[in-house]
Amino acid sequence: MKKIKIAVGTTSEQKLKSLKGVLKDLRVRAELFPVAAKSGVPEQPKTTQETEKGAMNRAIGAANEIKEEDFAIGIEVGYHKEKQGYEMFCWVAILDKSGYQISSQSHRFLLPKYFQDLLQKDIYLGDNLDGYLQKSKDRKHKRYVDDIVRHRKPFIENALRNALIRYLNKEDF
Predict the structure, then answer these.
(1) pTM (2 decimals)?
(2) Residue 1: its pLDDT value, please?
(3) Which of 18, 86, 99, 123 is the most buried (most CB within 10 A)?
């Protein structure tokens, strides 16, 4: 199997590490071309639509920048307010040279009250992650929650895996 060339609409080490891990799990040999692509949405998207659009904009930006790619990927983490409060999730978009597109959303996670309050006040979560554990007396399970909100790994990997499986097996879907 030849090595696939993937333009990636991010330079985030966290997102690139997740992508490399998913590609390894799927036994896909790939060369990545990270690009600082703009999402075209707020830095902290607060709707499903904004988050999906941000992922596609990043894929388009990467595809426009890197011409020798087999396909481009955009990754965007966002939030959406439901009845119980804000949920965290990730969208991944894939775009190839023929114009074929796939978008995939990860599972969702209802954020604890600390993060709900920050989002409600339009405060950027990334700059205020440490307060969650500082306000906690029982830290055992909260360390796990802190880790997934801080690093977003389960959401990014879930959306990447779903999108890549669908794309690589597109004739089956």
Answers:
(1) 0.92
(2) 61
(3) 18
